[in-house]
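Supplementary Methods S3. Input chains for the assembly prediction are listed below.
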Amino acid sequence: MKLVTAVIKPHKWEDVREALEAFGVTGMTVSEVSGYGRQKGHTEVYRGAEYDIALVPKIRIEIVVDDADAADIVGIITKTAHTGRIGDGKVWVSPVESVVRVRTGDTDTAAL
Amino acid sequence: MSPHSVRMPDLLLVPTAAAPATAAGDTAWLLAAAALVLLMAPGLAFFYGGMVRSKSVLNMMMMVFGALAVVMVVWVVVGYSLAFGDDLGGGLVGDPTQYFGFKGMLEADPEASYPITLFAAFQGLFAVITVGLIAGAIADRTRFGTWLLFAGLWTVLVYAPVAHWIFDFSSGDHVGGWMANELGALDFAGGTAVEINSGAAGLAAALVLGRRVGFGRDPMKPHNLTLVMVGAGLLWFGWFGFNAGSALAADNTAAIVFVNTLLAGCTGLLAWLGVERFRDGHATSFGAASGVVAGLVAITPSCGSVTPIGAMLVGVAAGAICALAVGLKYTFRYDDSLDVVGVHLVGGLVGTIIIGLLASSSVTTVDGLFHGGGVDQLGKQLVAAGVTLVFSFTMTALLVWVLEKTVGFRVDPEHEVAGVDLAIHAETAYDLHTATGGARPHFGQG
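Predicted structure tokens for the full assembly:
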């Protein structure tokens, strides 16, 4: 099993969710996060004073999937979240040792 | 005749055949006006509260509400008597024993057009707002107990004398303050006693207590601009009580002052946004709220001496000059957290001095320079503004220094970084996370 983690632009979140649902992804964990990459932050002005805001708001999606689906899901997220402008985000895949469904006690692939 | 039954001499007086019995209309308006000034306290709490970071919004609001409670009590005990009691000599301060605890003020005076207790309460609320304004200069970093102590002492040592100088008019046997009577400076509702006074005090307090941890490095931006807008709206509404109430009558002067107060807020907003648009490229909500207040600050002393066109000019001058002045703290590196200096000191100076230029004999008793009245009134205004600034700055610096060295005024750096709300009040303003919001309370050492 793999954990697919994606950090994307907030306004792309609905498109990505719809595409993943169409593919058959039934659940995910989503959080509002902030951070920065090459894009860095942005500038805000309050009473004439400029503030460099280092952190940019992003959406983080986490999905645990079967090994076979990981590449497809990364492809769907990458395609859907793409704008071509700086700050589109990143997607990465990491190995998952075991999973338990709390309600039934099902383990691993049966728990996905 | 009670000293307070006469109206301020800078108003256009219509002679009446005999001193009026307590006038129901005047009394009703003054009652409402006093309540409007009280509304400025929560207005100020919102205005300032939105400007601080989310970790200190409760402390900021508590500083304003706490000052309200302390100042009003001190005012009734001795503050009013110091400000409006018979002069002790030189026009410097009133007799603190004369009206101690509102002594001798409860009998109805058939010759006064409103009850003296009502006038005294109305004036007390001015002291409340003045002290509350100072809090903005030292936000995020003060001990609450010491702040309350400061509020009481400052009312007695600084506010009451300055109010005596400029607001206490001589009449009959009663001798008032030097600025209003000997000097003849015009200040309708508190450009000196309220605005310059609080602004200079804020500057002194910010300098003595020092900069916040991370000033100039961390972004200390306003955490909730919607609160700032609500606060500005409430302040504007309350300001009609402050200014038009200072006519002390429901009459033509009150109406002119009302219109002037409305217009200066409007042009203050437009001028501040204009500066922002050309300098920064954006017209901001924070600029709009600040511009309204800057315009209102400057019209406070001048509302009873300028025409509506003059009031618009006052607002434009204050909005533009204050929009530029708020940047001074980065140049000179003093941490006036919420721009009490840039808005209230500078706006107060603009409004007090501009009377010497724009005063019109169609509204008040003299003409300013631009209406052919020469520089005489301008000189008087400069003296009143300058003396208030120097007195307030010096006294406040001394008072804050003594409090810091004795009981301690500033919080520990770790509490300041963690947030004064939690450290001082054991509360946090916003509980938006169910994981901590649903936590069970624990009592004692549980």
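The helical segments of chain A are 13-23, 67-81. The longest strand of chain A covers residues 56-65.
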